[in-house]
Design a protein that fits this description.
Layout: H1 4-11, H2 17-29, E1 31-33, H3 34-41, H4 48-57, E2 61-64, E3 70-73, H5 76-103, E4 115-119, H6 121-133, E5 138-142, H7 150-161, E6 165-170, H8 174-183, E7 186-189, E8 196-200, E9 204-210, E10 216-221, H9 224-243
Parallel strand pairs: 5-6, 6-7
Antiparallel strand pairs: 1-3, 2-3, 4-10, 5-8, 8-9, 9-10
Helix pairs in contact: 1-2, 2-3, 2-4, 6-7
Length: 244
């Protein structure tokens, strides 16, 4: 049985669906004939040799001589490490070349350009991770839904280890309270029925909401005026809840 999730991961290496399935079939089998590969990978009869030749050229597969000809998968640690190195070098080169070009226009950013709409849970989640990973002084959280995944809990824990102060307002269940206590997040109870937000270092704000159709969207904001407004709002509630 071929794991469909692993197929999707291999496709990120610029392998086709059939190439991914063929490589996984060989990893599972160890060595195999073309017929055995075709049956396990469920690839078309007319494509089997083209697929294997393509994988051989890219270093994913080696051929063992004999009759019938047998194929073996290259160790995933070897071939995927090479893929990782190639991509890491490409990313470094892109950052090196593009960052100076991008920086030329930062002074021209208008009010509308520092407010962006994010659509979809994955995009919101990834932005929150990036914000928390870059936190250096303070993280303010209103509401709990944006911080319920393990990855975000890990990012909060790492931020605390850097000395970042984290405060949270909301109605939290016992499991969340225990997590916050373990990480070192200051938290206070505050019932609210409006949008949730996370504010980092007085420079980044993500304001999340959810419509009746349960389609997640959020506003990502770098405008100093808006951020100051939300920070003052949070601090006011924080002090009020302390009095209560």
């Amino acid at each position: 049985m071929i794991d469909s999730k692993l197929v999707e991961h291999l496709k990120l290496m610029n392998l086709t669906e059939y190439e991914s399935r063929t490589y996984l079939a060989l990893v599972v089998k160890g060595t195999a004939t073309v017929k055995e590969i075709r049956e396990l990978a469920q690839i078309p009869y007319s494509r089997e040799y083209d697929i294997l030749e393509s994988l051989e050229r890219r270093g994913y597969v080696v051929v063992q001589p004999g009759r019938p000809r047998r194929y073996r998968a290259v160790d995933p640690r070897e071939i995927l490490s090479k893929e990782l190195q190639v991509r890491a070098r490409a990313v470094e080169e892109l950052i090196k070349k593009l960052s100076p070009i991008y920086s030329r226009h930062l002074g021209d950013i208008t009010f509308s350009e520092v407010i962006w709409m994010l659509k979809g849970r994955e995009n919101i989640h990834d932005r929150l991770i990036a914000m928390l990973s870059g936190a250096r002084q303070e993280v303010l959280i209103l509401g709990i839904k944006p911080v319920t995944t393990r990855a975000i809990a890990r990012a909060l824990r790492e931020a605390r280890s850097r000395g970042v102060v984290i405060k949270a307002l909301g109605v939290f269940d016992e499991e969340t309270k225990q997590l916050f206590d373990e990480i070192g997040v200051e938290h206070r109870r505050y019932p609210h029925d409006h949008s949730r937000f996370v504010l980092v270092d007085d420079r980044e704000l993500i304001l999340a909401s959810e419509d009746p159709a349960n389609y997640m969207f959020a506003l990502y904001n770098q405008n100093p005026g808006c951020i100051k407004l939300y920070r003052n709002y949070f601090q006011h509630i924080w002090e009020e809840t302390r009095k209560l």
